[in-house]
Amino acid sequence: MADISDIRKGLTIEYEGGIYTILDFQHVKQAMTHGFMWVKMKNLETGAVLERNFKPGAKIDIVKVDEKPGQFLYHDGDSYTFMELDNYEQITLPEKKIEEEIRFLKEGMEVSILFAEEKIIGIKLPNFVVLEVKNTDPGIRGDTAQGGTKPAELETGTVIQVPLFVQIGDKVRVDTRTGEYIERVKEK
C-alpha cells in the first residue's frame, strides 16, 4: 500500500477491482479544508476513463508492471497484433486498449509489451519515433524555423503541428509522450 501523495503520471494502480494507469492528477486546495487529490485514470481492461477525488492520506495499491520487448506486426480491423521478441508469441490487443499509442505506431516498430499480474495491459512506444509527412500545406519562400507552425498529417494518419518549412515527404522526429514535433530528420 502506498499513500495517495506517491501518485504520478504513468503509475499503474489497482482500484475497485480494476487495473488503471494514471493519466493526470492535481492537488486541489480548498479554503477551510485539507483539500483533495483529483486523479484522472484509464482502466486498462475496458479503456474507460474515470476521474476520482481522494482525501489526503488515502491508500492506493501500486501494481508492478513488467516490460517485454516486442514488435508491431499488423493492424486488422479494430485489433493490433504484436510479437514478443524473446519467444515469438503473437499477441492481439483491441484498439481501445492502445488508442493513444496507435497515433504513432507503424508496422515493424519495436515496442515494449506491458504485463501486470501476468496479464497484458498494453504497450509502450519508444520516446521518439521518425515518421514521414504525408500531407501538409506547401511552404512559401522565406519560411524559416522562427516562423509559425502548420498542421501536417503523418504516415500513421495522426496530425501534428510542424514548422512552416516542413514539406510532404520529409521525415520528422516526434515525441510520442507529448505528440510534439522535435526536428526534421535528414536522410543519409
TrEMBL record:
InterPro entries assigned: Elong-fact-P_C (IPR015365), NA-bd_OB-fold (IPR012340), Rib_uL2_dom2 (IPR014722), Transl_elong_fac_P/YeiP (IPR020599), Transl_elong_KOW-like (IPR013185), Transl_elong_P/YeiP_cen (IPR001059), Transl_elong_P/YeiP_CS (IPR013852), Transl_elongation_fac_P (IPR011768)
Gene Ontology MF annotations: translation elongation factor activity
Single biological process term from Gene Ontology: peptide biosynthetic process
Keyword Protein biosynthesis: yes
Chief location: cytoplasm
Annotated ranges, domain Translation elongation factor P/YeiP central: 67-121
Nuclease found in the keyword field: no
Gene3D superfamilies on file: 2.30.30.30, Nucleic acid-binding proteins
Elongation factor P C-terminal domain segment(s): 129-184
Alphabetical keyword list: Cytoplasm, Elongation factor, Protein biosynthesis
Database matches in SMART domains: EFP (SM01185), Elong-fact-P_C (SM00841)
Role played: Involved in peptide bond synthesis. Stimulates efficient translation and peptide-bond synthesis on native or reconstituted 70S ribosomes in vitro. Probably functions indirectly by altering the affinity of the ribosome for aminoacyl-tRNA, thus increasing their reactivity as acceptors for peptidyl transferase.
UniProt similarity note: Belongs to the elongation factor P family.
The protein's name: Elongation factor P
Record lineage: Bacteria, Bacteria division WOR-3
